[in-house]
Amino acid sequence: MTRQTINAIENNKYDPSLEWVFNLSYVLGRPIVHWSSSFI
To answer: What tens digit of pLDDT does each residue of 13-22 get?
Structure first.
């Protein structure tokens, strides 16, 4: 993950791919619904 990606996530300007969302959900051990609302 690049610094630009982290910056975009922190500023709510990141639109992750569906595969990335599922992988992140698995790694964090959290359901997608738990944290996906922060991207909306």
So the answer is: 877 787 788 8
